[in-house]
Design brief:
Elements (H helix, E strand, L loop, with lengths): L1 H10 L3 H11 L4 H6 L4 H16 L5 H10 L4 H11 L7 H9 L3 H11 L4 H28 L5
Helix pairs in contact: 4-9, 5-8, 5-9
Length: 152
């Protein structure tokens, strides 16, 4: 599992920078994005992963990865978002790059999980993490969508 984390950490390097650059395209300065208090939903999403990682077992983080890496955005989705929002293509660079880079990540993660000698409790934690991620990511997207002007 440590080997997977080492490789995955390198693959995810600078993705936060990509997102900050996308927000700047939308007129949101980096300083504003970084100084804003995260929503309670985002805190719950990230905080739950920290909790399981440090107070149970790092395997739980693989559930988060399974959800986040398992569904890379397809070009059709990105085009639809551009059309619906009216935002410039450059605002979706992070989505586009993940759509190009992530398709093989799910197979790699599945192989890693299949090779681990997981206990039933660890499998449960992995599944709880994936489901928790699905619920909280959905909720955070609903919150963002609710913050947009009507019709966006």
């Amino acid at each position: 599992m440590a080997e997977y984390f080492d490789v995955h950490m390198m693959e995810e390097t600078d993705h936060d920078e990509w997102l900050l650059e996308d927000l700047e395209v939308l007129g949101i300065p980096r300083s504003t994005a970084l100084s804003r208090v995260p929503s309670d939903t985002v805190a719950a999403l990230v905080g739950s992963q920290y909790y399981w990682l440090f107070h149970y077992h790092p395997v739980a983080l693989l559930g988060y990865f399974a959800f986040m890496e398992g569904f890379p955005p397809k070009r059709e989705l990105i085009d639809d978002l551009i059309e619906r929002t009216g935002f410039p293509d450059a605002a979706f660079r992070t989505f586009e790059l993940h759509g190009e880079l992530d398709p093989g990540h799910q197979k790699e993660l599945d192989r890693t999980i299949d090779e681990l000698p997981l206990t039933p409790e660890q499998e449960k934690a992995l599944g709880m993490s994936a489901l928790n991620t699905a619920v909280l990511v959905t909720r955070s997207l609903q919150e963002v969508a609710g913050a947009l002007p009507a019709g966006s």
